[in-house]
Design a protein that fits this description.
Blueprint: E1 3-5, H1 6-20, E2 24-28, H2 32-35, H3 38-43, E3 48-50, H4 55-67, E4 71-77, H5 86-95, E5 101-105, H6 123-128, E6 134-136, H7 141-153, E7 159-162, E8 167-169, E9 184-187, E10 192-196, H8 200-213, E11 218-222, E12 225-227, H9 231-241, E13 244-251, H10 256-267, E14 272-277, H11 287-293, H12 298-309
Length: 312
């Protein structure tokens, strides 16, 4: 299985958009190589803007470009974009309904050695609360490319995509279904539904395979769109299985798991266990070690499944 970072999918998506839509422009805050926006810059230098370390200014420029008919993608680390420039995202972009696409790179604990200051673990929470802002968390490089393209082709309005730094399994294909706002069932099961987002969907599939050997049948759902969330698929999973485990590389409060719980509270309440960052900041370390240390690995998912089964 190929191991490639999800940010590669973002870069490839930008290049495809550049080739197919002359109104697409890309901005970055001195992080073109890390965000893979440099791939767009190499082919379309006249449509690339290097703003420098001025993320708030970058968002304001993007809003103006969008209101002038362009489709700007603003690219930086998620701690800065949407972290540092959230005010400009809220007022200049979302309040104005500007057609700006926000890319938050180096999201999650798997950023690794860069440490807590650069490990974005709150970005889903601060974006999904903003009116009319679409929030997407692709599970691998291929899905990130599809999502990047769809943000410009299918959505007229603000949208946020988060992706990681570390290489991760590429376990979807070009033929794997993807549509913004529609979760996909990657594995059928009827004892527990594991609803995951981002790169940890692969961990969920591994956990489901291990649990199958013990006679526990798990459905695995790839919930790539946090907003607008797929209420129908999530409620159907809860009805079928009667228990849910959410999995995400984000703070356990306010993120994708919280969004799932909000749906279930209104549609079909069932026992839920959450796997995510346990209300703490990260630290420097190797990505795989940090995932395990903070309880987001395969073993943690298996433990959560067994725990929620006892509550059915």
């Amino acid at each position: 299985m190929d191991m490639l970072p999800t940010r590669d999918g973002y870069g490839l998506g930008l290049v495809w958009l550049g080739e197919n839509n002359p109104n697409v422009v890309v901005l970055t805050g001195d992080l073109s190589e890390s965000t893979r926006s440099s791939w767009f810059a190499e082919k379309f230098p006249k449509r690339f803007i290097e703003v420098g370390v001025a993320e708030q200014n970058m968002m304001g420029i993007a809003a103006g470009l969008a209101l002038s008919g362009k489709i700007p993608f603003v690219s930086s680390y998620a701690t800065f974009n949407p972290g540092r420039n959230w005010d400009q995202l809220r007022v200049s972009v979302c309040y104005s309904g500007a057609n700006v696409k926000i890319a938050g790179a180096h999201a999650g604990i798997s950023v690794g050695p860069d440490g807590a200051t650069h490990q974005a673990l709150e970005d889903i929470a601060i974006t999904r609360v903003l009116p009319d802002l679409v929030v997407i968390v692709p599970c691998d490089k291929i899905e990130a490319q599809k999502a990047t393209i769809a943000m410009a082709v299918e959505i007229k309005g603000p949208a946020y995509i988060r992706f990681g730094r570390e290489k991760s399994p590429v376990f979807t294909t070009e033929d794997t279904p993807f549509k913004i706002g529609r979760a996909e069932v990657f594995r059928e099961g009827d004892d527990v539904a594991i609803i995951g987002s981002g790169m940890l969907v692969y961990n969920a599939l591994q956990a489901a395979e291990e649990l199958h050997k013990e006679g526990i049948s798990c459905q695995v759902v790839n919930n790539h769109t946090i907003k607008p969330i797929d209420r129908k698929t999530i409620a159907a999973a809860a009805r079928k299985c009667g228990a849910v485990v959410t999995v995400e590389e984000h703070q356990i409060n306010g993120g994708a798991g919280s969004a799932v719980i909000e749906v279930l509270a209104e549609e079909y309440p069932v026992p839920v266990e959450r796997v995510g960052m346990p209300d703490s900041f990260g630290q420097s370390g190797q990505p795989a070690e940090l995932i395990e240390h903070y309880g987001m690995g395969k073993s943690a998912i298996i433990k959560a499944v067994k725990k929620v089964l006892k509550r059915k």
